[in-house]
Amino acid sequence: MSEKNERKGMSEKIEAFAPALLRWFALHGRHDLPWQRDLTPYRVWVSEVMLQQTQVVTVIPYYQRFMARFPDVESLAAAPLDEVLHLWTGLGYYARARNLHSCAQVVVAQFKGEFPKELDGMMSLPGIGRSTAGAILSIASGLRHPILDGNVKRVLSRVFGIAGDPSSSAVIESLWTLADACTPEVEVGNYTQAIMDLGATLCTRSRPACTLCPMSLDCVAAREGRQAELPGKKQRPHRPSREVTLLIAQIGDDGSTAVFVQRRPAVGLWGGLWSPPQFENEAAAMTWCAQEVGEPESDSQLMPPIEHAFTHFDLRLKPLRVRCRPHEGIREGERLWYELNDPPKIGLPQPIKQLFERLRANGDV
Asked: In whole angstroms, what is the distance from residue 259 CA to residue 248 CA?
């Protein structure tokens, strides 16, 4: 095929992309998700942030609880960060929750509670990148902006045969160019929801349902059997692992047991959440406990280890349990005794929340 004919074929393929996708979405797409009702910038923004690297079925109950407590940007901005993190516990990637809270405060303080209508203004807000900004503006306001989240990258890479490391600047630039070319001038809100929906339901990472896909006849991956190859794989470095001792310092009698926790630094692992302190070894944990928390009243006891995978490394927590006679003033500042049977509304990392739930379930409180 000549270069001229090849360009013509690509142009026709791009031109046909949005109409085919919109027809499919009208008949087979999801239209009853909680964030598809009452399409305001606030509601779309919260859903887009929650859906980052998280499946729809997981997000739905979190979104519903979040909206019941924070129905608008003003209520979110006025809330304590701990309450926001508490409602986020279990969703992971907690920087998203901190950014939501910061963003709400900026929108209220600097934009009088109204989200910007321009892409640059939207992208100036904490935690909002180009794709999220485009999704909010297109879905909530009908403004034409392309998006490029993980689902869209997968759809475009397969349909148009874009190979290579999807995190490389060259591939990302090619995908943004395609995303912009395929985005229609009309029905842009439906189109944005449709392409994300296609990637989430049919053009999935594994076992894509190509026979049901409206793009299958023109899809390079489907035609050439390259679904497993496209999109390309990221160049991943060696995955490190860490092992730490988790001090479970307890006070109280049966039915009123509390565990010492402290707020972690805002930046870094579990930033802004509350957790028992971590140490390199048992000796360091016990020395610190005697100095900062209270004199041990019993021998320490190692509990079963907790394995937790983060995006870039694996963490092995070794809980070290000890009952203490506490010093005075522990409840002040960024430290507190976490009542297991009457827990405060603070944000906990999911592994810590599960550990505390096991302590309750096993009758250890």
From this structure: 6
How far is residue 184's CA from residue 195's CA, in Å, rounded to a whole number? 12
Structural tokens at position 320: 């070290």
Q: How far apart are CA 249 and CA 320, in angstroms?
A: 8
Please check whether the domain covering 3-224 is classified as CATH 2.160.10.10: no
Residue 198 contacts by C-beta under 8 Å, 6 or more apart in sequence?
21, 24, 25, 29, 151, 155, 213, 214, 215
C-alpha torsion angle, residues 27, 29, 30, 31 (rounded to 10): -50
Q: What top-level class would CATH report for the domain 241-361?
A: alpha beta
In whole angstroms, give the CA distance from residue 316 to residue 322: 19
Q: What pTM value is reported for the model?
A: 0.84
Q: Indicate if 48 belongs to the active site.
A: yes
pLDDT one-digit tens code per residue, 180-237: 999 999 999 999 999 999 999 999 999 999 999 999 999 999 999 999 999 998 877 7
Q: Where are the domains of the chain?
A: 3-224, 241-361
From 3, 12, 48, 328, active-site residue: 48
Q: What is the 3-state secondary structure (H, E, C) of 214-281?
A: CCHHHCHHHHHCCCCCCCCCCCCCCCCEEEEEEEEEEECCCCCCEEEEEECCCCCCCCCCEECCEECC
